[in-house]
Amino acid sequence: MRVLGVDPGLTRCGVGVVEGVAGRPLTMIGVGVVRTPADADLGHRLVAVEQGIERWLDEHRPEFVAVERVFSQHNVRTVMGTAQASAVAILCASRRGIPVALHTPSEVKAAVTGSGRADKAQVGAMVTRLLRLAAPPRPADAADALALAICHIWRAPAQNRLQQAAALHASRSPRRPQTAHPPKGRPA
Q: Among residues 108, 77, 155, which one has the least CA distance to residue 14?
């Protein structure tokens, strides 16, 4: 399975591609950051993010895209930029028919480090170890993108089994017949 992880941001959007399957050693295919100038117009920044993600999709042909789920922060301006970059990544993948998975920051940290409260240094250290890299990817946005891809590779098989079980259960559940109720109104 080849996964493009996207750590969304308007100034720095981390991107990383990891290949492998759960339970086996993983391989980093590529890692980087799509950058936009902070003083540029919002529309131009979003186009730059789109173009950068499209280049990664063209070059690496992932089977899945894993994007960090945007969560509420105290700084509304920051969360808005993150949400906008996230939407661009989801749009780029969806336009190509590539399935998108959203993972929360704590879910990613727990998958990679064993603790949902791990700090950036711990995530970077574990990504380095899991992918057998010489040094942690810089900046942290790049390491976070790889962590998203790792999280998806490790969690996707279990999530797929849960979804299949839920669908099977729903298909086997007896359905109650719908009864038509006479319309309410005054007799004539």
A: 108
What's the whole-number average pLDDT of the chain? 90
Helix, strand, coil fractions of the chain, as percent rounded to 5:
50, 15, 35
Over residues 47-96, the pLDDT tens digits come to 999 999 999 999 999 999 999 998 766 778 788 989 999 999 999 999 99
154: left (phi over 0), alpha (psi -120 to 50) or beta: alpha
Question: What are the catalytic residues?
Answer: 7, 68, 141
Distance CA 175, CA 185 (A): 30
Query: What's the residue count for the chain?
Result: 188
End-to-end CA distance of the chain: 68
Q: How many helices (H) and strands (E) does the chain have?
A: 5, 5
Q: What is the pLDDT of residues 96-133, one digit of tens each?
A: 999 999 999 999 999 999 999 999 999 999 999 999 99
Alpha-carbon distance values, 10 to 76, 104, 108, 113 (Å): 14, 18, 21, 26
Contacts 24+ apart (CB under 8 A), 115-121: 120/144
